[in-house]
# Entry
Amino acid sequence: MRCAVVVFPGSNCDRDAYHVLKNVFCLDSHYVFHEESFSPDEFDLIVLPGGFSFGDYLRAGAIARFSPVMESVRRAAELGKFVLGICNGFQILTESGLLPGALLRNRNLKFICRDVYVRVTNNRTAFTCSLQLGEVLRLPIAHGEGRYFVPSDRLKVEQIVFQYCDEHGTVTDEANPNGSILNIAGIINERGNVLGMMPHPERCCEEILGNTDGRKIFESLIAYFSWRKEHAAD
Amino acid sequence: MLRIENTGLTQREYWSILERLSREPNDVELAMISVMWSEHCSYKHSKNSLRRLPTSGPRVIQGPGENAGVVDIGDGLAVVFKMESHNHPSAIEPFHGAATGVGGIVRDVLAMGARPIALLDSLRFGDASKPRVKYLFNGVVSGISFYGNCIGVPTVGGEVYFHPCYEQNPLVNVMCVGLAERRHLKFSKSVRPGASVLLAGSLTGRDGIGGASFASETISKDSESKRPCVQIADPFMEKLLIEACVEAAKLDAVLAIQDLGAAGLTSACSEIASKSGNGIFIDLSRVPVREKGMSAAEILLSESQERMLLIVEKGKEDGVEKIFKKWGLRISKIGEITDDGWFTAVHDGVVVARIPAKLLTEVPTIPLEPATNRRVYRTQFDLLVPSDVERVFLELLASPNICSKRCVFEQYDHMVGTDTVMRPGHDAAVLRIKDSSKAIAVTTDCNPFYCFADPHVGAEIAVCEAARNLIVTGAEPLGLTDCLNFGDPEKPEVAYQFEAAIEGIRDASLSLNIPVVSGNVSFYNETENSRVHPTPVIGMVGLIEDVSKVCSASFKKPGDVIVLLGPIEAGIHLCEYTRTIHKLEDLPAPTIDLDLEKRVQRCCLTAIKKGLLSSAHDVSEGGLAIALAESCILGNMGAECEIRTSTRTDFLLFGEEQSRILVSLPQENLEKLAELAEAENVPFTVLGRVGGRELTIKVNGRKIIDQPVRKLREIYEGSLERLLSL
# Structure
């Protein structure tokens, strides 16, 4: 699986995502600068990392969507390649229309950095196939604009992949850190190859950091990818 | 002598300038000199005292004198760190004041060729219930959050204290820690004549002119009019500068990097020239400016943020320019290093300033005149043991100086970089070093109440407690940085406080063998009617050789034995308990025995390295009872303790006797720990066991405290947010 980590000016989690892909999962990983372009079949997974692309001065992700690299990302997505947008990456995906909805300022108007629990609401995706339906993951969040909003006719229920919940998996308003509609923490496009999520799975993939729940998302992708490859060879 | 009006220079200083220059300075030169001779830039009141601090050691690569201190951590790696204050700007414009404070210290670390990997903030505010304090608090915290989060450097620790003495003059001290490969470190002294001077980053504007002079005065009603002295923060620009500088530092052609802070180009250029024994020539017409018509003095003294100076070997500028342009940054050659020792600036082809670089950096010191009379403490007091000790315990747990600062650190991204092994909320933060088995522990510390009661002892305790905070994680302290916040040094009492605090830092760092590698002095933290407590904040960095052995404060396993290393008896002294409950502030500070401190620390560190302990926690504000509560809350586990003693119950539980560490360990390791303690002659008391859902403490057979941990957590973690109505 050949992976790209896109670097926008102001990306902060590019090196973290690269570290996890390259050193934890030993995948063939490359940085792609925002001004570069690549051919649609060059990478199997493209990660849009967290951070503050272009400072997020206007609106999170609003400028990054105009970066030349986004045209390549769009074409790769059209070809069915996997795209994972984490935090600012999710914001860029909604801004560029690859995912529906928008990410608004947290309801308490403050930046929030802590661990939250999310429930796997859909495990029939490439990103969650190794997880149980209803499984609870503890993942860190770190964002000021993470309140997902979408008009009801723009998102199908099965596109909701992760929802904020309490440690037992119950979706409650109390467990919703930012006021997201339906406690949404992550969604996928209809085709099932572009996922955006506010929590940071790349921050919890190693024992030494005290939490490895994030691994399961990358492991799902790797498992799905090799399954598909075998399947295609049949 | 009309000329020196509004310059802050004294007549005597002006005479010495005339003598060294052999002529009258022109207006541009006078403006440059007056800013460089301000206390903020020159350290003229503090320099003599600071020389008393021990600054060398086997691990020290760079002590004070460069942009930041550097210590060796082996494997060809070095840790760079420094702490700086941004008190005055934050007092009038808290958001941008604090944000630019973060930016400035990050660039200091960057200038050494290191990648910034951690930030810590040591904050002091007035009474948390006052509206203005809430405004300042929210402004400062959001400013730090805005800037630190955007640049992608995790804010992993710090402290917050509240006391009325900080009401008009809050303290905002920021520490930055960086990691560098030794071979890529940059030093001003490597600069050679002929090298090119490149200016990178933001445009130079009219903002922040006179910031350094403003920081060298006390805060008054007129300070509000100085709001334009506070610069505007642009963290996105800083983030780009970080990436570009880290990349550029790998080039040997880059001889040195210098940040532009107080006094802008004037300070950066004169520092680079005088530290390397050279001169510098700059053409102000080549400085990219934000607006037309800026005068030479404005360009020379602008404190526009997010700018860096790079000194590059002549002919090799292209490689550096390429890196900066890739990151979308402006970079221009504005001059070169000369061998004449002079600072020469031309503007539109005319020489506008020509003075010896050392005239700007070597400023005559001003001797302090410390008061000789010491504080008088209350000797007569009516301190009854409260009838309801448990209520006092809960009150202390909720008090703003003790309770959890969760609502603050959750606004900071403390995990970006995926190195934060131990997050905020513990004694120290721990960051692993990728591709190695090592980790570093970082902390800041200073109890201003002890320092007010006795600046010497208070400063000793600040150093010892910072070291203890590192030790309990399993780290060996490598070096410290100090950020010395005081009032007006020309007042005898402040001069005494300052000198006594320096002696305290000196004594403790000599005793514990922890060199001072960098530091900052902030004077004039006072208003017409109030002055801050002496607040010598200590930032410290320690090394953990094996990150898998890192130890934390939380109780881990039911059945573990709880032991106090260090004295259990406590005398009557100033502590949160006397301040909060009895409203008594004029008691003597707790005493500290530096030799005992050393032995307690050594005993604990050896025990952690041998893998004997499950948890270790420094006993500090709030005493033993609060330390027990914190270990319970962090571990989400109860404890049952029974103490037999002749010490009065209130000081036993809440007294802040020093040199104490609370540990828990499996029964089978108890004997080994006892042996270690005996070998080090460290007092050792078994207090009880970990387990259950309640914290219960019995004293001499009587149950004094019995509370569910869940309730303790609610109080401890929710109280600050309620108080500040965040």
